[in-house]
Every structure is written in structure tokens, then in C-alpha cells.
Design brief:
The complex is a heterodimer of chains A (579) and B (179). Chain A is α/β, with parallel strands linked by helices. Helices cover 40% and strands 17% of the residues of chain A. Chain A is globular and about 70 Å long. In chain B, the strands form two sheets. In chain B, strands 5, 6, 7, 8 and 9 form a five-stranded antiparallel β-sheet that branches. In chain B, strands 2-3-1-4 form a four-stranded antiparallel β-sheet, with helices on both faces. Helices cover 32% and strands 39% of the residues of chain B. Classes of the chains: A alpha/beta (579), B alpha+beta (179). At the A-B interface, strand 6 of A face helix 1, helix 2 and helix 6 of B.
Chain lengths: 579, 179
């Protein structure tokens, strides 16, 4: 009888909670229910009802008006990456929706949780080639974890609840919900409950205890083990467990650029960056280790180089939440499926305390070689021109590794990842898988809004800066205290480097005749400074970091500097070149 | 056959009945430039649950990766793949030929009987023959009917069930009963 009573009470509550509102108001209510405090977007005809509903909730949801939908979605990505909560992005139909596609593809490949809501033409006009009609469901399908078109307001609560759940659970990813204008206007009985289960969807695969045991025994018997860690550690909120594992087993650990900052860069067992422009030791010794333990990483080709020459001697243990990643690129001898926080916790109980001093010494020796041949020259160049590395190095000195570094794509990105110091997790925000130029500036704005108490530095090249330069206006309008560091070499530097090394210095369309960035940024009322000489650099960086507000620092760097080491395209990781 | 040689596979997926899921599944093939030989979808033995049957000629390694990507889609409950010897498979073919071929003796009737096919309809101007079987069988009947003139010919996609007592339907049942 008691159960019956409580059921009645629940029913009554439900009745009380039901409100007769329109679809657009429901969308905004749901955003509040899902604790969305910041949304990024751009209004237009088909999404006007939702913007109208947002007008009433400005105290609870800050809407950031980007200057292009691509800027809005990259900002939402930056926000999501520092908070690990879904970034929310709004756009209108047609061009508004298509402008989101690059950001969706970026978020899909880098597993970033996003909920994007697009307006759509009224359902009666679907398929009629109406004004600003585009098949955004069809277009976005390959680059979303899930998408759905709403044509009836009654669907909105369940569909949006699913959207937030799918975007943020399991391996996160972008979700797009397209809502026709008539559904936004349609009044219905609204009530909301969060979604926590979908029968056809397994966000976290069940952990097989035998896989943990096998992995532990392999780790305990390993003579030369190497850990590769990726963003999975951060997305699973497993940094603490991961560090315990590394310290207990004494295993040298190397990172992918999306895993960077999950373990502080100064940790004695952090042996550096993997991949094409990564550190010498971890690349070379990938082909000497006896057990390779990959955690929350997906063996991207920029990490592995030529797969037929990759870690053939090693037993591979792969801790991974997504079954489709197992054996996709590198065959796993011991796949360990599950959420990294849980699998590492189980593994920790079975691994024996160890240290691998002689093996670790190999990494230290490699680091010494790299320092002499590459790093010293980059950080203390004997040339008159400034290097990107020395700029990052001075920033490290002043931030003590406490800043969030948001990089764009290209040479400066590799330099920022190679040389930035990090003492806190979720601090390296970059476009890894897709390599989206133009990501940096808007993502930095989103990161600052997601982590307002932290210093956020956007490190951008002169190419990428001009791809989303309009977002300076958004920074100005929001008063977000974003530090913008432009490393200007007047070239599309990474492409130019490849042209130099592999295309006989035929610099086809890589030289940039740039505008005066100082004048442009001043036009957005953001304080600026330009540095061309070494003796003025440190003072300028101090001013840049200490200024209470957004600031633009442009540093002119060597036009034809190259990023080394380098695993040339098609080569194996152990064929890494130091010069 | 090694995993690196191409052969015929049948991919089966149990899914929710959801608008656009067909597209979501086919783009997995498009992305890898894998041709779909045939694809069918219909309600399965479980109410409200649909079943896709997809025929491809590919390496086992590629098929395995594709199946994992299919299963990763939110509305897919379970997906798996089979080699030819692991399934019982059929296709249905329809052949429309002129009615006058019937009046020219008993030849057509003999061929239809011989092929275990049957007449679906006989109209004044044309007749329609139906044949279920393997690709080579429907093709053999096609070849035999050519002399009479084939007005229209159509063949369904492959449908197949596994040579196990339950197949992956059992896993699907487990998922459904858990929810």
C-alpha cells in the first residue's frame, strides 16, 4: 500500500511540474535543468523563438554571441574541454548549421562533448528547398555521435535529455538536435527528467576481470614497459588513479597531445611527447619496449608513424572505453575494455611496486641528446631572430605551468605542446585529430569562460589567426580576459617546412603578406604590443600576462625555422630525425 | 582464406527502428570506400526491433572494423558478421516475360519446374515468375529465360540467418530483457 501511495504522490508531482509552454521555452528550461550556464551561438530566422526564450533567462544563461558559427562551436569546444561538461552551441538553419560542420568534425575526432541546437524551417516546408533550408541531419551524420530532427514539441524533453546524456557519457562526442520552427512555437505540456539509460547504447563496456589480471601479470613481468597516455585519462577524470599507477609501477610514461597535462610535465616518470614532432626518447624507445601500455589513446597515425614499423617487438595492452578502437590501428594483445578510471583502479590493486631505473635512464639519455641537438638551440637560439620555443619558455617561467594553453594548428602548436609546462590537468587545449586552423582563438574564449579563474593563453600562428580573427569582437564584447599570443613567421610554417624538406623548397602559396595585426586588433579595442627583439621579449610577456584584461602580443619569429625532431611521413617512429 | 583476402560476408545488425539509421549505417561503408552489394531491413523476430542484412565482398579485417563501427551507433543493439558457410541465405528474383512465350509450347513451364521456380501471375500480355535461391540459381534461371525475352528482372538483397540455434538474436534478447 505504501508503494501505491508514493506512486500517487509522484504522479501528482508530475502534474504540478507540467507546464503549458512552447517548444522554444522548453529548450531553454532544459538548458537550465542541465545546468548550462554559458551557451555559444548566432541567431537567425529559424532559431528566433529559442533566442526569444533566452531573452527571459539572461540572468541564468549567458549567451555568447560569436561572429561566425564556426567561432561559436570552437568556443563551445574550448568550454567543454576545460570543464568536461557538454559545450552548448546554437545556430540557425541553412548556412548557420553548415558553418558548424568543421567544429562538429573536430569534436567528433577529439571526443569532445557538445550539444548543438539548430533551427530548421517549419516542418510543412521540409524538402521544399525553402529559404535557408539544408539537410543538416544528413550533412552532420558522419561527424556527430548522434543527431535527431524534432518536428513536434512533445519530443523536445526526451530528445534533449538523450542529447545531453549521449554527448557526455561513455566516449564523449558531439550531438546535434535540429528543431523545426513550428515545433519551437508549438505549445505542449512540458515536464523534464534527465536521461540515464538507452537500451541500445552501452556507454561503458563491462570490465572483464581476466583482462585486468592478464594486463597486471604482463606489467609485473615487464623489463622495459612504456605507458602511452591520451585524453581518455582526462575524460574519465582518472588523473589521480593514473598517477598512482605510474608511480607504483615506476613505468616511463609518454603522452599524446590530447593527453598532455593529465600528468604534470615535470614528473620524473613523464618522458614526453609521442609522435611526429614528439620527443626523441619515447619515439625511439617505442620500438625497444617489451610491453606497451596504451591508456585512453587511439594510435593516431601522427603518433605511430608507419604502422608496419611500430612496436612490433612489444606486447600491447590497450585500456580503452570504445570497443571500435581495439585493433583498429595497432593489434592489442591484451585489450582492457572499460572506463579508464575503473580499469586503472582495478589494475592498481594487482600491479607490484617496481622501478625501472636502467630503462628510465635510457629515456634520460635520449632527452640529453635531444636537448643538445634540438632543445637548447630552440630555447636559446644563437640567431638574431626569435624562436617560438624561447617565447614559450619565458611564458613557462612566469606561469609556473599553471596556465591553460590553447593552441591553434601548425608549427606553433607543436612548439607549444613540446615546450609548455603543465602542473594542472585539462590545461592543454588544441585541435588534435582534425588539425583545424582557426580553432585557437575561439577555443581560448570558451576555455576562459569555462575556467574564469585561470590564465588562458591562446598561442596562434599568423595563418590560423586570420581564419577566425572575427572572434576578437566576441572577446571584446564578453570582456573575457584572454591572452592572445601571435607567433608570426609570415608563413604557413608547417606546410613551408614540408615544402623545404620534401618538395625541394618549392614554397607554393605558403608565404603570407599579412596586414598590420596591431592596427586590426586595436580596432577591436584590445591592447596590443609587437616584439621583434630579444631584449624586449621578457618584459613584454610580463606585461601581457599581468594586464587585467584581454591582451594581444605579437612576436615576430624566424621566418624559416623548422620544428624538430621529426618522424617523416611514411617512416617508423624509431627513424625519428633530430635535424 | 586469410584475413587479408577479399571474400563474401553477411553483416547482420539488430537496431531500433529510427529515422536516418540506414544512412548512419551506410556512411560507415562510404567512409571506407566499401561497396554494399545489397542491403535489406525489416522487423525482426523481436517486436519493434529491426534487422539489417548487408552483403559485402571485403577482407575479414575490414569487415570486423566496419561491424564495430556499426555496433557503436547509438540505436544499434548488436551487430555481427558471417562467412558464407556460417549462414543460410537466400535471394528472391522476379522475372517478367511476354505471355506469348507460354503459347509456344511447354518450354517455359519445363524451365520453371526445372528451376524450382513458380508463376506468380499470368496476365494477357505478360507473366511473372518468382525464384528464391542463391545468386547463382537466380542467375541460371535468368540465362535460361533470355531466349523468351525478359521484359523486367529484379532481385532482392540477400537475406540470411546464422547456422546457430539462436545467433546474435540471443544477445539482443538479453539486452531487451535487462531493460
Amino acid at each position: 500500500m505504501k508503494i501505491m501511495e508514493s506512486q500517487i504522490v509522484t504522479e501528482q508531482n508530475k502534474k504540478i511540474n507540467t507546464q503549458f509552454i512552447n517548444g522554444a521555452e522548453a529548450v531553454v528550461k532544459i538548458l537550465i535543468e542541465e545546468q548550462v550556464e554559458v551557451a555559444f551561438g548566432y541567431p537567425g530566422g529559424a532559431i528566433m523563438p529559442i533566442y526569444d526564450a533566452l531573452y527571459d533567462e539572461q540572468d541564468r544563461i549567458q549567451h555568447v554571441l560569436a561572429r561566425h558559427e564556426q567561432g561559436a562551436i570552437h568556443a563551445a569546444q574550448g568550454f567543454a574541454r576545460v570543464t568536461t561538461k557538454p559545450g552548448v552551441c546554437l545556430a540557425t538553419s541553412g548556412p548557420g548549421a553548415t558553418n558548424l560542420i568543421t567544429g562538429l568534425a573536430d569534436a567528433q575526432i577529439d571526443s569532445t562533448p557538445l550539444v548543438c541546437i539548430t533551427g530548421q524551417v517549419p516542418s510543412s516546408l521540409l524538402g521544399s528547398d525553402a529559404f535557408q533550408e539544408t539537410d543538416v541531419i544528413g550533412i552532420s551524420m558522419p561527424v556527430t555521435k548522434w543527431n535527431y530532427q524534432v518536428t513536434d514539441a512533445n519530443e523536445i524533453p526526451e530528445v534533449l535529455a538523450k542529447a545531453f546524456y549521449i554527448a557526455s557519457s561513455g566516449r564523449p562526442g558531439p550531438v546535434l538536435i535540429d528543431i523545426t520552427k513550428d515545433a519551437q512555437f508549438q505549445k505542449f505540456d512540458y515536464s523534464y527528467t534527465c536521461f540515464k539509460k538507452i537500451r541500445s547504447y552501452v556507454p561503458k563496456p563491462e570490465i572483464d576481470p581476466s583482462s585486468i589480471e592478464e594486463a597486471a601479470s604482463e606489467i609485473n613481468n615487464a623489463k622495459r614497459p612504456l605507458i602511452l597516455f591520451g585524453q581518455g585519462v582526462i575524460l574519465a577524470n582518472a588523473e589521480k588513479e593514473f598517477k598512482n599507477l605510474v608511480e607504483k609501477t615506476g613505468i616511463p610514461s609518454a603522452w599524446t597531445i590530447l593527453g598532455l597535462s593529465a600528468l604534470e610535465t615535470d614528473h620524473p616518470l613523464n618522458v614526453g611527447m609521442l609522435g611526429m614532432h614528439g620527443n626523441y626518447g619515447p619515439n625511439l624507445l617505442t620500438n625497444e619496449c617489451d610491453v606497451l601500455i596504451a591508456i585512453g589513446m587511439r594510435f593516431d597515425d601522427r603518433v605511430t608513424g608507419n604502422l608496419s614499423k611500430y612496436a612490433k617487438q612489444a606486447k600491447v595492452i590497450h585500456l580503452e572505453i570504445d570497443p571500435a578502437e581495439i585493433n583498429k590501428n595497432v593489434k592489442a594483445d591484451i585489450p582492457v575494455l572499460g572506463d579508464a578510471k575503473e580499469t586503472i583502479t582495478h589494475l592498481l590493486k594487482l600491479v607490484k611496486p617496481n622501478s625501472h631505473e636502467n630503462w628510465l635512464q635510457r629515456f634520460i639519455d635520449c632527452a640529453k641528446i635531444e636537448r643538445e641537438k634540438v632543445i637548447d638551440k630552440e630555447l636559446n637560439p644563437d640567431s638574431e631572430t626569435l624562436s617560438m620555443g624561447e617565447v614559450i619558455n619565458i611564458i613557462n617561467k612566469h606561469t609556473q605551468g599553471n596556465a591553460i594553453i590553447v593552441s591553434d594548428v601548425g608549427q606553433h602548436q607543436m612548439v607549444a605542446c613540446r615546450y609548455s609546462k603543465f602542473s594542472k590537468t585539462k590545461s592543454n587545449i588544441t585541435s588534435g585529430g582534425l588539425g583545424t586552423m582557426g580553432f585557437g582563438l575561439p577555443a581560448a574564449l570558451g576555455a576562459k569562460l569555462g575556467a574564469p579563474d585561470r590564465t588562458v593563453i591562446a598561442v596562434i600562428g599568423d595563418g590560423g589567426f586570420q581564419m577566425t580573427i572575427q572572434e576578437l569582437a566576441t572577446i571584446y564584447q564578453t570582456k573575457a580576459k584572454v591572452k592572445i599570443l601571435l607567433l608570426n613567421n609570415e608563413f604557413l610554417g608547417m606546410v613551408r617546412q614540408w615544402q623545404q624538406l620534401f618538395f625541394e623548397k618549392r614554397y607554393s602559396s605558403t608565404e603570407m603578406i599579412n596586414p598590420d595585426f596591431q592596427t586590426i586588433v586595436k580596432g577591436y579595442y584590445i591592447p596590443t604590443k609587437k616584439v621583434t627583439e630579444r631584449d624586449k621579449l621578457e618584459k613584454a610577456i610580463e606585461e601581457f600576462l599581468n594586464f587585467d584584461g584581454a591582451y594581444f602580443l605579437e612576436v615576430m619569429v624566424g621566418k624559416e625555422n623548422n620544428v624538430f625532431p621529426m618522424v617523416p611521413s611514411g617512416a617508423g617512429v624509431s627513424e625519428i630525425r633530430l635535424e | 582464406m586469410t584475413r587479408m583476402e577479399k571474400e563474401e560476408f553477411t553483416i547482420t545488425a539488430y537496431t531500433e527502428n529510427h529515422v536516418g539509421l540506414l544512412h548512419r549505417i551506410t556512411i560507415i561503408f562510404t567512409k571506407r570506400k566499401v561497396n554494399i552489394e545489397s542491403i535489406t531491413a525489416s522487423e525482426s523476430e523481436k517486436e519493434g526491433i529491426h534487422r539489417f542484412t548487408i552483403a559485402v565482398t571485403e577482407t575479414e579485417e575490414a569487415v570486423e572494423k566496419i561491424v564495430k563501427q556499426i555496433e557503436k551507433q547509438i540505436e544499434v543493439l548488436k551487430a555481427d558478421y558471417y562467412k558464407n558457410k556460417e549462414v543460410v541465405q537466400q535471394e528472391v528474383a522476379l522475372y517478367k516475360i511476354p505471355s506469348k512465350s507460354l503459347t509456344n509450347g511447354i518450354e517455359v513451364e519445363r524451365i520453371v519446374r526445372q528451376h524450382n521456380a513458380r508463376f506468380l501471375t499470368i496476365e494477357k500480355d505478360f507473366l511473372v515468375i518468382e525464384k528464391a535461391g542463391f545468386r547463382r540459381e537466380t542467375k541460371a534461371l535468368f540465362d535460361d529465360l533470355i531466349p523468351f525475352g525478359i521484359n523486367e528482372f529484379v532481385r532482392s538483397g540477400r537475406i540470411a540467418v546464422s547456422r546457430e540455434e539462436h545467433g546474435i538474436g540471443e544477445y539482443v534478447q538479453q539486452i531487451l530483457s535487462k531493460n
